[in-house]
Each structure stands twice: as C-alpha cells, then as structure tokens.
Specification:
Layout: H1 2-12, H2 14-23, H3 30-43, H4 49-58, H5 62-69, H6 84-95, H7 99-107, E1 113-115, E2 118-120, H8 135-141, H9 145-152, H10 161-173, H11 176-183, H12 200-206, H13 210-218, H14 223-231
Antiparallel strand pairs: 1-2
Helix pairs in contact: 1-2, 1-3, 4-5, 4-6, 5-7, 6-7, 6-8, 8-9, 8-10, 9-11, 10-11, 10-12, 11-13, 12-13
Length: 233
C-alpha cells in the first residue's frame, strides 16, 4: 500500500512524489525507492530520471542521489546525467547548503561518456555560464562556508565569475570567513569590477561590515582603485 501511495504521488508530479517519499517511513529503504522508480520508468513515458535527480539534490536526499549515480536502471536503457540542465543539480545543492550532495557530485568518476542514445557529462562545478547562477556565487551569497572551501579546491571552479561576484556578495552580506577564503586565492581581486556599486569594499561599507572592510583595506590588490572609490564624493 505504501509503495502504491508513493507511486500515485509521483504520477501527479515529481515534486509531490519526492515530498511523499521523503515524508514516508521508507525513504531510507533504497529497494523500495528503486521499485517506485522502476514502476515509473515502465509506465510513465514522461518520467525523467534527471529531474528526480535534480530534485533529490535540492532536498539533500543523499541516499537517492547516491542510488541514481550508480545507474541502477541501465538494463532499461535509462541513465542519470548528473550534469543535466546545465549542471542544475550542483547549482541547487550549492544554493541549499547540501555539502554531502556536492561531494558526491564532485567525486562522480564519469567523464564524457557515450551511452546508448545519450551523451553523459561529468558534473561541471563552474556552473551556469549564461544565467549567472554559479555554485560558488550562490554559496558565497548565502554564507555556505564549507561549500565555498570545497569548490575552491576544484580545478574547474573560477572564484572570479561575474566580475568577482563571490567576494562582492560575501563582503556585502557579512560572511567574513568566506571573504578570508576568497582573499587567500590569488585569482581573486576584491576591487576588480567596472560597476561601482558592486565592488566588495562598497558592499561592506554600505552594510556596515567593519571587520570585512578592514580585511579588504589591508589587501594590496587593487589598492589604487579602492582609494579612488573612497575619495569619490
């Protein structure tokens, strides 16, 4: 009966189905979770394993993400693409501070692999190059220190995306540990931005983040520009 209820919920929509699964007593039972998805794959032509993967990443459902990364439905020619929808899974996990999901995604061993009709890609933590929804920007803006630390250690992550948006956001919203992490990276320039209102020192000043302001004033990068901004009437 529980299995049928969960299946029925998924038939109404992925969000409702996953919410029902999460609230149920069987969400830790991977075999039941797998059985639900097998039913959906067999009976619902619109079911997307990638969508369920993205939603599970958002809701921090580590067991479900781990299950899907193992490609348990390959015998049905169904594989998860962890980089689907422009790496939406890692972008959602970064936004919602789901660090275990981030680790799973970064540790996934697949490279670019042709499987059946699909081309699957390894997760790219550099994120969305078109919409500005970069994992490191989301994590910096929301104070997710350990995710920022984890992402900075990855060779594909660029901490200067969107004109140094990560340090600009962390400075503005008062996340001093993240500011320290970013300043420790030689690629970051807290004053390298053509838009006056978004450089780090201005954000820290306007929001009264005095300790962050002190850090930024001590940093030698862009010193001339900082002084110029401070003297602007």
């Amino acid at each position: 009966m529980i299995l049928l209820n969960i299946y029925a919920a998924f038939s109404k929509g992925l969000d409702e189905g996953l919410e029902t699964l999460i609230k149920s007593e069987v969400k830790t039972n991977i075999e039941i979770t797998k059985a639900v998805m097998e039913l959906l794959i067999a009976n619902d032509k619109d079911f997307s394993i990638d969508n369920i993967f993205i939603i599970a990443s958002k809701h921090n459902e580590v067991n479900i993400v781990r299950l899907l990364l193992e490609d348990p439905f390959s015998d049905r020619n169904v594989w998860v693409d962890p980089a689907a929808k422009n790496n939406k899974a890692i972008r959602r996990a970064s936004l919602y501070d789901n660090i275990e999901i981030i680790r799973l995604l970064l540790e996934d061993p697949r490279g670019e692999t042709k499987v059946s009709r699909s081309t699957l890609y390894a997760v790219d933590p550099s994120g969305d190059q078109s919409g500005g929804d970069h994992p490191i920007s989301s994590a910096s803006m929301n104070g997710h220190t350990e995710i920022v630390r984890l992402l900075l250690a990855h060779p594909k992550v660029d901490p200067t995306v969107e004109n140094n948006d990560p340090i600009n956001s962390a400075s503005k919203y008062g996340y001093i540990e993240i500011v320290r992490l970013l300043l420790a990276d030689s690629r970051v320039n807290p004053n390298d931005d053509d838009t006056y209102d978004s450089i780090a020192i201005v954000g820290a000043s306007e929001f009264g983040n005095v300790d962050i302001l002190r850090l930024l004033l001590k940093d030698p990068r862009g010193e001339t520009k900082v002084r110029g901004v401070l003297r602007t009437p």
